[in-house]
Design brief:
heterodimer, A: about 375 residues, alpha+beta, 6-stranded antiparallel beta sheet, 4-stranded antiparallel beta sheet, 7 helices, elongated, B: about 100 residues, Gyrase A, domain 2, 4 strands, about 50% helix
Chain lengths: ~375, ~100
């Protein structure tokens, strides 16, 4: 290679990284042995020696940030977050899983249970049933609070398989009936032969008004997700209980998590470094288990491979496993493009869950600011 | 709670109670993006204690103010994410409605 004097080298455009560094900064390289350049370069002065500012300006973020909704229905949604750092996307994910409140059954008062399922197992199963109610309408119940209509939902379950039925019967979550007036069980401390026969006996909850008189519940009663098997009863067995639900957070117990799961993956990028033609093209299409590649016909009956569905790529690296293929196909991930998926359990629609999660991160920042000043 | 010295305000460690990686890692990102920051990092001293220590060293400005500013930055980012997301969802719902008709 002939020597070129420094001043004859082509000048780089101002404020732009050389191509290879730009690629290392924005992509994860999935090589056939191990991924490289997996780290994110955050430090504002990381490229100071090249005279390039690596800091993020808010207006620049606003210019580049995009959201694309791919799929949305009442239970789950998929969307792309483009132009955001993994640390913030991960914060949203963590908040969705463990810091958004929901209502879940916390206390179970068992009056009678002769099924083979032990009471504690039954209570645990009841706890995991998602309750379809907006948790924002309720308050948290602290340790010395009395359960009332603002912090407690009561369900009743009474199921009996008669002695002569001759069959095993299944108790489903549909059999949980909402009690808008609160608990029906009288506290054991209450004197049954009270002097005043008109006074209402004290129960496990002290509602001042019925929950179905509230405008939110008068037209749509509180229900749970139907079709979940609670227990199976043989002839003569019976379950009679009351389940009290309260508000809580996923970090206390997973039953309060509003999502079945929430996750993201970085956008896969599949690049053909060389033209892959004829037999090689056929081989490449056959190699891929998720059908990323297609074949297009070029002139004179010849064929060439194309990348048709890069989003489907799972980065299994099957296409670059054999020697020689790594020079033909490059698998990468885009570091600031997240395919985010939220599966709601039914309490709130997924798009509401995400906005709530962002709101919570905002509140956290605000708390820190006020604590410091 | 802030741990630092009165002689040198440009370096201090802040202890945030009832927080975890969720906030600390996001703050580390926004702090690192601030040109006034020379070094920053966070640690969770013990996994069963709900607190994080955030270390900030600056090139001269008071570390506390820089940390406050990056909280502000993170808040602005969140606000923008929220409004963009709500807009995207509304657009998607509109499109879907017009397609099904």
């Amino acid at each position: 290679m002939p020597k070129i004097p420094l001043w004859d080298l082509p000048e780089l455009p101002k404020n732009e990284l050389p191509l290879h560094l730009q690629l290392q900064k924005t992509r994860v390289f999935c090589n056939n042995d191990a991924p490289t350049h997996t780290e994110n370069i955050h430090y504002s002065g990381a490229y100071a020696s090249m005279g390039i500012d690596n800091s993020l300006r808010l207006d620049e973020f606003k210019k580049n940030f995009k959201v694309k909704v791919i799929k949305l229905n009442e239970d789950d949604m998929e969307f792309d977050l483009i132009g955001i750092d993994a640390s913030i996307a991960n914060a949203f994910r963590r908040i969705l899983i463990s810091e958004l409140p929901t209502m879940a059954i916390e206390k179970v008062l068992v009056a009678n249970s002769s099924s083979v399922v032990q009471d504690e197992v039954l209570a645990h199963r009841l706890g995991l049933i998602p309750i379809k109610v907006d948790p924002r309408l309720f308050d948290y119940m602290s340790e010395n609070d009395v359960p009332n209509e603002k912090n407690c939902i009561v369900f009743k379950l009474h199921f009996k398989n008669p002695r002569g039925s001759g069959e095993r019967r299944t108790v489903y979550s549909n059999d949980l009936k909402w009690l808008p007036f609160g608990s029906e069980y009288v506290l054991p401390t209450e004197n049954s032969n009270s002097s005043d026969p008109n006074s209402k006996p004290k129960t496990y909850t002290s509602y001042t008004s019925s929950q179905d008189s509230l405008p939110e519940f008068s037209t749509n009663p509180i229900t749970v997700t139907p079709g979940i098997i609670i227990s199976k009863l043989g002839p003569g067995q019976e379950i009679e209980l009351e389940a009290h639900a309260c508000k809580g957070l996923g970090k206390t117990h997973a039953k309060w998590s509003p999502v079945a799961t929430a996750w993201y993956r970085m956008l896969p990028e599949v690049i053909l470094l060389k033209d892959i033609e004829d037999d090689d093209a056929e081989e490449l299409v056959k190699k891929c288990p998720v059908n990323v590649f297609d074949i297009e016909d070029i002139a004179k009956g010849r064929k060439r491979a194309t990348v048709a569905r890069p989003r489907a790529c799972t980065l299994c690296r099957e296409c670059i496993r054999e020697p020689g293929w790594e020079e033909k196909v490059a698998l990468r991930r885009v570091k600031d493009h997240f395919i985010f998926t939220i599966e709601s359990t039914g309490a709130l629609p997924p798009e509401v869950l995400f906005t709530e999660a962002v709101q919570i991160l905002e509140d956290k920042c605000e708390r820190v600011i006020t604590e410091m000043s | 709670m802030e741990h630092g010295s009165y002689q040198d305000l440009s370096a201090s460690t802040h202890t945030l109670n009832d927080e975890d990686h969720t906030l600390a890692n996001s703050l580390r990102f926004t702090l690192n993006q601030d040109p006034r920051v020379a070094l920053c990092g966070y640690s969770i001293p013990h996994p069963s204690e709900a607190k994080v220590n955030i270390r900030v060293q600056t090139t001269g400005d008071p570390a506390k103010e820089v940390l406050k500013d990056s909280c502000q930055d993170l808040m602005m980012i969140c606000q923008h994410v929220r409004s963009t997301f709500e807009q995207a969802v509304a657009d998607f719902k509109n499109n879907e409605g017009s397609e099904s008709q």
